[in-house]
Amino acid sequence: MNVINAKRVGEVISSNTTSFLAQCIKDDTNILTLPQAPYFGSFVKAEGEEIGFDIIAVVFEISSGSIDSVHRPTAMNLSRAELRNQQPQIFDLLRTDFSAIVIGYIMNDKIHQTIPPHPPQIHDFVFSCSSNEIKNITNKMDYLRILLNSGTSTCEELVEASIRHAYAARGNDRAYLIDVGRELSNLLKDNYDRLSAILRRIKP
Fold first, then answer.
1. Can you tell me the distance from the alpha carbon of 126 to that of 143, in angstroms, rounded to the nearest whole number?
2. Which residue segment(s) compose the domain that 204 sits in?
């Protein structure tokens, strides 16, 4: 994978066939803040340095908390600026994680929207996908079926958010939304309520 200019957003700390959990990487230029997590519904890729392919996924959950069970955060009634000035060590005790649903993989520059042969390995780096990568990934819409069948508690919202990221990557091209609407109508032809809920959300 060409990681030049790619934004590294996390490191895999747990993985399975269909999803992975990554810990966000702290910005060395601004250590007095929480790491910036990728957005809900955004497209990311885990660099398969040793397995020979990159794994594509969509972020479905973001959480922040303590780095361990001992240093539990408590309310301090201080603004962010006051925390940085008075309690800067706090930020070393916090972490942000995100979970992502695997929607495919890239091998030899070819995109496969199916379960990869192997999940990402622990400590593989995770990068945000560029606009061009998102366009290439979402030219085929098999990813919608994967997300619809993911079983997450925010499934409809996740589908809507991923579509909006793909839509934005195309410069808000309405033709793409029309194509997505047709695909969703086919996938959800037996579930009108679910279909209409998603279509309402993606309406520009």
1. 19
2. 141-204
